[in-house]
Amino acid sequence: MEFFELIKERRSIRRFKKQAIEEEKLKKILEAANSAPSAGNLQSYDIYLIKSLDKKSKISYAALNQPSLINADILLVFCANPKKVTSKYGGRGTDLYCIQDATIACTYAQLAATDLGLASVWVGAFYETKVAEIIGADPELDRPVAILTLGYPDEKPTKSARRPLKDLVHDEK
Q1: pLDDT 10s digits, 4-34
Q2: Is 165 helix (H, G, I), strand (E, B) or coil?
Q3: CA distance 36 to 14
Q4: What's the angle, vertex CA 128, arms to CA 122 and CA 131, rounded to 5?
Q5: Is the pTM of this model over 0.70?
Q6: d(CA 38, CA 76)
Q7: Alpha-carbon distance 29 to 170, whole Å?
Q8: pLDDT 10s digits, 47-75
Q9: Hey, what domains does the chain have and what are their CATH numbers?
């Protein structure tokens, strides 16, 4: 898909078909996430791949009972890993760069999924410590910052309204 068409076509999908994602598509999504830029090329994030219904159900509960987390074929939990960036960038690396790295990787995964005919929704409303516990993350190493659902779409929502560029972009004065 052409890039600008891809951006226009991407939607937040919360209903998924009961259809498994092919391993080759999943690999392409993960490779896209791995190719995302990161501070100092340190890739200060980790990705937890969740397929089991039990863990998806527990994560859904920890994410304010969002059903899309159960219905998706796969969840990718993107975690910031400050230890990978702190020695080079100090506090700014710990407080910001690792979070940026994880979210950029999540964005690349989301766009790759759309390009492959899959659907997703970015989930940010959840209890971090509970999700970390469910996925078995070491709280000293990995801070969950985004959950990406993946699956085949079972809905086609209309395009959401966006802010006009004149309200969004502030030219220098």
Answers
A1: 999 988 999 999 999 999 999 999 999 999 9
A2: helix
A3: 25
A4: 80
A5: yes
A6: 18
A7: 34
A8: 999 999 999 999 999 999 999 999 999 99
A9: 16-152 (3.40.109.10)
H or E element that contains 61: helix 53-62
Q: Decide: 143 and 85 in contact? Cβ < 8 Å.
A: no
DSSP 100-144: HHHHHHHHHHHHHHHHTT-BB-EE--S-HHHHHHHHT--TTT-EE
Instruction: Measure the CA–CA gap between 87 and 92, rounded to whole angstroms.
Output: 11
Fill in the DSSP letter of residue 148. Answer: E
Amino acid of residue 12: S
The residue among 113, 106, 109 whose CA lies nearest residue 9 is 113
Q: Which residues of 46-67 are buried (b: 16+ CB within 10 A; e: fewer)?
A: bbbebeeeebbebbbbbbeebe
Give the 3-state secondary structure percentages of the chain, helix then strand then coil, rounded to 5.
45, 15, 35
**Cα gap 8→10, rounded to integer Å:** 6
